[in-house]
Design goal:
Blueprint (H helix, E strand, L loop, with lengths): L3 E4 L2 E2 L5 H12 L5 E8 L4 E8 L1 H18 L15 E10 L3 H19 L3 E5 L10 H4 L3 H11 L19 E5 L4 E7 L4 H11 L9 E8 L4 E8 L7 H14 L4 E7 L4 H5 L17 H8 L9 H8 L2
Parallel strand pairs: 5-7, 6-7
Antiparallel strand pairs: 1-4, 1-5, 2-4, 2-5, 3-4, 8-10, 8-11, 9-10
Length: about 325
């Protein structure tokens, strides 16, 4: 029986294609780890790499990727719309096949300890790997972002890392390492340049403000397109579906006299999440069937993928 874990590191780099390719290559160069997807966005200045494999292979690949990100990314020079605390901002482990959530928690804890030993980057555990109830929510750890956390950790015991000293790495910051269920990153673009509209809609629909359960949302600016976006994480699509989120954003947008310009799924999505969604509403930009997790897994772990060299895949996925 296969034992497969997914890992979805979010790196604070979404503009330099060569750096992104180097991060992808670092992951795929680890024996047994296979990259499933790479998505990057210049406005967010963030890339999301999805890879999977046996637990030992995924641990090795995750540590190598964190090391490469530490080498390449200086948060003091980073500018982007997405909140972040680290060069590798988050590092979640997700059970896929033959592995329990408890095992993913153990992986997260081991990797977190090793990150501090190897790279001197303080670690915060979140979601199922959290050591404190208030740290289960990533937004609590990320409050104040890199600059704010850098100051808080020096004087506030409540902001101390779970692993490491009371200081951030000077260029790589800190990292949130977790274990969680499958998550859907879903963004909806609005036909306005007024970011306050996106922020109001995000506040109306997210769980923390009394909106939809299992939905996290923020409003961001897409400067290159002169539009704004409601950027969301659906932490349990069986509780709140993509369609429910789309319909809620559409209603809130209409109340504010604007429309939905389009939407996107960042990275991979489980097939059953699409099965719960009516075809009529889908205004997805550039969606491919290869973004369906099960189909991508079958493709990548099938015999036809074995001959593809890591460098070739890295260049392909980062273009």
């Amino acid at each position: 029986m296969k034992r497969l874990i997914e890992c979805v590191p979010n790196f604070s780099e979404g503009r330099d294609a060569a750096r992104i390719a180097a991060l992808v290559h670092e992951v795929e160069s680890a024996p047994g780890a296979r990259v499933l997807d790479c998505h990057f966005d210049p406005d967010h200045n963030r890339s999301v790499v999805t890879f999977a494999g046996e637990p030992e292979a995924v641990e090795a690949a995750a540590l190598a990727a964190v090391g490469k990100a530490t080498e390449l990314i200086d948060l003091n020079q980073h500018r982007g719309e997405h909140p972040r605390i680290g060069a590798t901002d988050v590092l979640p482990f997700v059970p896929l096949e033959g592995v329990t959530m408890a095992e993913c928690v153990s992986v997260a804890r081991r990797v977190g300890e090793e990150i501090w030993k190897r790279y001197g980057i303080p670690v915060y555990f979140y979601e199922n790997a959290a050591t404190r109830p208030e740290r289960a929510k990533l937004e609590n750890i990320r409050r104040g972002q890199f600059a704010g956390l850098r100051e808080d950790v020096l004087s506030d015991p409540e902001r101390a890392p779970d692993v490491g000293a009371l200081r951030l790495h000077p260029t790589a910051g800190a990292i949130a390492v977790g274990a969680r269920k499958l998550l859907i990153a879903y963004n909806i673009t609005l036909s306005t340049a007024d970011v306050s509209v996106a922020e109001q809609i995000a506040r109306a629909i997210r769980e923390s403000s009394g909106g939809l359960p299992a939905v996290k949302a923020i409003g961001v600016v897409l400067r290159a397109r002169r539009l704004v976006q409601v950027s969301m994480n659906l932490t349990d699509f069986e509780v709140t579906s993509i369609q429910q989120v789309f319909d809620a954003v559409r209603r809130e947008a209409e109340r504010r006299v604007c429309m939905i310009e389009g939407s996107e799924i960042v990275g991979l999505v489980p097939k059953r999440a699409l099965d719960m969604t009516a075809d009529y509403f889908f205004q997805l930009d550039s969606f491919s069937r290869e973004q369906i997790l099960e189909e991508r897994m079958a493709s990548v772990f099938g015999e036809s993928t074995q001959a593809e060299e890591p460098a070739t895949r890295a260049a392909h996925l980062a273009t």
